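Here is the promised in-class demo. Please do not try to memorize the tokens; focus on the logic of going from shape to residues.
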């Protein structure tokens, strides 16, 4: 993994960090992996909520267990729009 990505990941600790331009990946003990956009979570939690807290409160849709075993963030590319003139 490139060092700049490691440095970037270390800055994302709250839901609203990096203006929400990332994907949150939650992993359950049963093996299920969920990828969520911060705006989906913000409907239920505040933008200042730490990601550790979100992982603790999350419930797996497969086994219904509460609390993700691990979480990670990954950058998403902002779409660039082209217009025909």
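The designed amino acids, position by position:
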């Amino acid at each position: 993994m490139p060092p700049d990505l490691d440095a970037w990941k270390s800055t994302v600790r709250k839901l609203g960090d990096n203006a929400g331009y990332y994907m949150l990946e939650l992993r359950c003990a049963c093996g299920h992996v969920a990828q969520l956009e911060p705006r989906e979570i913000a409907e239920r939690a505040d933008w200042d909520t730490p990601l550790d807290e979100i992982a603790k409160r999350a419930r797996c849709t497969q086994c219904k267990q509460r609390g993700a075993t691990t979480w990670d963030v990954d950058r998403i590319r902002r779409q660039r729009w082209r217009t025909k003139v």
